[in-house]
Amino acid sequence: MFSACPWNASGAFARQVVLTRVLPESRLEDRDHVAIEEPLEIKITFIRQQRRRLRKLAVTMRTPGHDSELATGFLWTEGLIRSPQDVLAVIPCRSGNGVRVHLRAGVALDRQRLKRHFYTTSSCGVCGKSSIEAVQVNPAFAPPEDHLRIPEAMIHQLADRARAGQVAFECTGGLHASALFSADGTLLGLREDVGRHNALDKLIGYHVLRKQLPLAASILMVSGRVSFELVQKGAMAGIPVIVAVGAPSSLAIDLAESRGMTLIGFARQNRFNIYCGKQRIDTSCNVGEAE
Questions:
Q1: What are the tens digits of pLDDT across the range 238-264?
Q2: Of 45, 36, 42, whose CA–CA distance to 11 is shortest?
Q3: CA-based angle 236:96:91, to the nearest 5?
């Protein structure tokens, strides 16, 4: 019997579709679950000249759920807010595909940053930026210190621990995940989305709303490749270590190195590559060395 797909904490993330399975010796009419992809319009309200004003900020294609976190994380990683106290409230729009973020009086909005970008696909969070300079955002926190030490064995375990929490992926096979772990490997939070940048914004937004930044003693695990944008978002949250199942880009490595971060890629099948910041990884077991 075809089982129902579970919902996340704030709504459905998948729907059923009818399909034809093409097998080597047969054709089968069947049903399956696919990840939902819908637009979310992010609006902000702010005080200017003693009046509260409304502005449309961005439209992103996302998987519904945790929209308040997504909007807050987006504002933080875009550098539009610099303190968790800048957000007074996040109110869902009646349509279900929009949120309004109410900013406190006194928040100084950079007009050039407001022009960065109005539409993003689910796959690219920096598409449409008006210039290379606009893509770069200065973190609110200093580069992370080097006191964190992570055993090599823990890195091998993170992908499996994250995968165990990916309920939506198990249902659809079509969602990215970002997971945050403490220095001892405890899972602190996990978010999934059809867009890899949205999953991370949701995760960061969760911690912004709870005033838990910077995340200076944590490890970020991402389910796919790691791009410049994901490293930048991690830097904006003060995360010192990023571990990816897939490959990093050249610009992701350059940015992580310049920010004093540790960047690890291809963390699967009991192997991984350290691209920068190897001082935080304890490889004293000398696996693979000749006796």
A1: 999 999 999 999 999 999 999 999 999
A2: 36
A3: 55
Q: Is 5 a catalytic residue?
A: no
Residue 98 domain flag? yes
Does residue 8 fall inside a structural domain? no
Quote the mean pLDDT of the chain: 84
Q: Which domain holds residue 213?
A: 150-282
Task: Give the Cα separation of 60 and 289 in Å (integer).
Answer: 48
* Mean pLDDT of the region 13-41: 88
Question: Which residue among the candidates 93, 124, 127, 285 is catalytic per the annotation?
Answer: 124
Number of domains the chain is built from: 2
pTM: 0.86
Per-residue model confidence as pLDDT tens digits over 122-146: 556 555 454 445 456 677 777 777 7
**Residues 172 and 269 grouped into a single domain:** yes
> With b meaning 16 or more CB within 10 Å and e meaning fewer, what string describes 70-109?
bbbbbbbbbbbbeeeebbeebeeeeeeebbbbbbeeebeb
